[in-house]
Amino acid sequence: MPYKINRMLKNVLKIWKIKWIHLSKPTHHELEEAIKNLDLHEMVEQDLIEPSAHDKIDVYDDCIFLVIHFPKYNEKLWKYLSNEMNIILGRDFIITITKYPTNNIEKIRQEYEQEIKEEWEEAEEYKISPYYILYKIIDVMYDKILLGLNKFNLDLMEMEKQVFDKSFVDTDLLKKVLIKKRNTVLLKTIISPQEEILVELQKVTANFYEGDLDVYFEDLEYKTSKMLGHISIIHENIDSIGEIFNTLTNMMTNKNIGILTVLTVIIWIMTMISGIYGMNIWLPFQNYPGAFIVLMGFMVIMAVFTVLIFKKKKRL
């Protein structure tokens, strides 16, 4: 079967009868043009214009409309953002639309082109289908997430080591841990609904494509479970680091309170002695020229004695 690959425009890839259109942060006009050229259902246009906070799948007579979110890491903020991807899947076309610019789609398209070229004469028919392209997109995105989760875990291990190495509560490190916790919650929020979406997608694609894609959906479902497992472990590690921070904070607070208590006792003794010698009555050593030095020495001795008592009681 003579397959042919044609780059019509920068955002259009045509492989034999299959057309792949990708739009990154498109304008309203670009959306209207894509919908008009492919004669899509009017409800699809409305779904594309209105952003969705949740994953969903809608089935029409001639296409499948899919909303799925993937995490996008912002290195400046150290945070993950939710990058909404709208996918319109027809019998001979696929449209992918992302909320934020991403290089991943272009990378996937180049790899897909290369895969077809290498198997030019022996390529399986199912690979020249929008459903296989959809699998490739989700599969590559999941692989990227798994790599990110692995780095995530390594960062946490390094943070835990830094927590034990420091003799004080590092507020910058604590801030990083809190950001990691927020990222974990977002990742779980993004990935969890996709288990149900994949099951539903497997059912509806059977109405559009007769080929057997079960093995690919099983692979995606396995990776989803693996990601959620990693996220669960990361969440537990973050909670553990948080407990360490709380314990260290309490210990340092108790230590500071002990120091303040000792200072309070010392100042109280000095205040009492100075208060007594401030009274207008006869007092010992009041006519002695070295009385000031004697009293100061006595105060120092009392201060040292107080510190030794607290140390013996292990309050310092």
Gyration radius, rounded: 34 Å
Span between termini: 84 Å
Major sheet description: 7 strands, mixed
Poorly predicted residue ranges: 1-9
SSE-based structural type: alpha+beta
Q: What overall form do the CA principal axes indicate? A: rod-shaped
Q: Enumerate the strands of the largest sheet in spatial order, edge to edge or round the barrel.
A: 1-2-3-7-6-5-4
Oligomeric state as shown: single chain
Q: Helix count, per DSSP?
A: 7
Mean pLDDT: 80
Beta fraction: 15-25%
Number of strands: 7
Question: What string, H for helix and E for strand, traces the elements in order?
Answer: EEEHHEEEEHHHHH
User: Which bin fits the share of residues in helices?
Assistant: 55-70%
Describe the structure.
With 316 residues, this protein is of the alpha+beta class. It is built from seven helices and seven strands, in the order E-E-E-H-H-E-E-E-E-H-H-H-H-H. It has helices at 28-38, 42-49, 104-118, 130-165, 171-205, 214-276, 291-312, and strands spanning 5-9, 12-15, 18-24, 56-59, 63-74, 79-90, 93-98. A seven-stranded mixed beta sheet has the order 1-2-3-7-6-5-4, with helices on both faces. Helix 4 (130-165) packs antiparallel against helix 5 (171-205), helix 4 (130-165) runs parallel beside helix 6 and helix 6 (214-276) packs antiparallel against helix 7. It starts with a strand and ends with a helix.
Summarize, please.
By secondary structure, this protein is α+β, with helices and mostly antiparallel strands. Helices cover 60% and strands 16% of the residues. It is built from seven helices and seven strands.
